[in-house]
Task: structure prediction
Amino acid sequence: MGPGEGRLDVARVRGLFPGLSDGFVHADGPAGALLPESVVLAVAQAMRVPVADRGGVFPASARGEGLVASARAAVADLVGGVSTGVVLGANTTSLTYTMARALARTWRPGDEVVVSRLDHDANIRPWVQLAERSGALVRWAEVDIETGELPDWQYDELLTPRTRLVAVTAASSALGTRPDVPAIARRAHEVGALVFVDGVHAAPHGLLDVTALGADFLAVAADRWCGPHVAALVADPDLLADLHPEKLLPVPDRVPDRFESGTVAFELLAGVAAAVDHLAGLSEEATGSRRDRLRTSMAAVTAYESDLFEWLDQALRAMRHVQVLGSPARTTPTLSFTVAGMRPRQVAVELSRRGICAWDGDFYARELFDALGVNEEGGAVQLGLMHYNTAEEVGYLVDSVAGLRPR
Result:
């Protein structure tokens, strides 16, 4: 038994994923996970029967209403929210822009917004751009370039009574860093600021709790936790009721519908609920409500992935020709690295020739990689593990990276 195996029945788990039949080692999870058969079937079934837009008096419209309600309930269970506070959308970037525009309508010149260099650009650029338009000041939380940490103590100096919003990630998809979001949120709330948390990369690797995080807004994306390309934004319905986004006149003014622009992809919403059910069923010992089953299964996922990742991380750091970026104390099973004498694209090509899926570039962490000084050389190479990866695959990853040499 290799490191990490035994926490989950990985053979059973892998049997749920038809995409693994391609023979590649899929270490590209941070950019999008594989789909289990249950999600594929749920989407296909939703496309086999008539489904119409909501608001009609006939069965096809009722099916559309049911798919929306099921997806909202599933996301609420995933993050510990309530379904009436779940806004659905095509992707987190679009949802963040929608919320940024709505919030910025309340900002005035001299107000302040705090963003972090650690974040994906989708949780930076909307806030920066809307702050500029409203005359608000942008303050930056900086990353420790040696460790890749986002120290929470710096927020004592960044926050003022004029701070209106703090945007921060629950986990970096580039370095894996997990900041102390509750500590940051507590400081923000003390000055009356709202907290927008990017939970996209954190959600696949451990159970999220929107209340425990201190998040006023929490963004997640189903394609990161084995679902289709659908995103969700979770907030307190009372908070959403105080915000008024731009929308078409016929769109209902009720929450959360007022934040959802255009017709949703109903068939994909079936996959959202199926993906949450997939996560809840990963541990055969999980019982109780879906939230209870998620708690048990995600604890097993965290333990399993952590053991595998410790092996991968330590092995790569021991290689003289490899530089792993950062060394965060709390991390997801994700890392970025460079290889001496090779550009990241060259490394990715060589790994692909060896049957390994790995991304190269800046992974939309442009501010972070500028701070780390790696963008001039093409960024870095990213490896990220999921609950369907095995110890055998990690061993192959280690051997493959060890064998990389500049041409």
